[in-house]
Amino acid sequence: GDSVITVQLTEEDKVEDDVVFYLVFTGSTVQHCTSTRKINPGSLETISPGHDCCETVKVALCASREGHPVLVVAEESFQFVQDEAYDAAQFLATCAGNQQALNFTRFLDRSRPPAADVDFLDEKVALAFRHLKLPAEWNVLGADQSLSENIPRETLMHFAVRLGLLRLTWFLLQQPGGRGALSIHNNEGATPVSLALERGYQKLHQLLTEEEAREPDSWSTLSHTVHSGDYSVKHHRGLDVYMLTAET
């Protein structure tokens, strides 16, 4: 999700300014309707929705005009694929609380990818995490809630902070167990907060210690989502397009 989609109109579809175009994505369990913005008489632009699973969906381009019925202008198929970021998010979600898996992730720290790669990884994995269907009981600290804060262990928060993943850290902070993870020491005696300080991640340290810390600047800050039951409406401020998602 959250990629820019461009729609090229044919000559006969280039109509008056009072016609509004929408894209409707119909999946097996979820339907998305996105508004579009006109770039020029022959091109529209919108944002692809974040979908709940990897599948091929039907996309209909619809035209609406006041006082007239909605017309389906064209239909096409659109494929949501499982990429590396989705795999990584799924792996991290399932290894919350799994010490063997979390210790395994520490080898990434030794390779220290370049800053640009870390930034790309951070954005993509955080975005994939937001679109994962996490179980209602999911917790940053794992399933075993009987463990006390005094037991040294690795957490997902240690992982995100160690690599300097600002947006993923923000996401985890909003989840159950996110704040609790900040005071947990690992086997070296480091908390996520002390790790951020030790590594000189100033923005990250600020994010973890300030009560009113704001969401990091990213693609996601360009959009705002409102949920209501089985529906959600997202406004992408960058393109000024809206997306309605409904469970079917």
TrEMBL record:
InterPro entries: Ankyrin_rpt-contain_sf, Rho_GEF. GO terms for molecular function: MAP-kinase scaffold activity. GO terms for cellular component: actin cytoskeleton; membrane. It comes from the Eukaryota. One of its GO terms (biological process) is positive regulation of canonical NF-kappaB signal transduction. PANTHER family: A-KINASE ANCHOR PROTEIN 13, AGAP007712-PA. This is AKP13 protein.
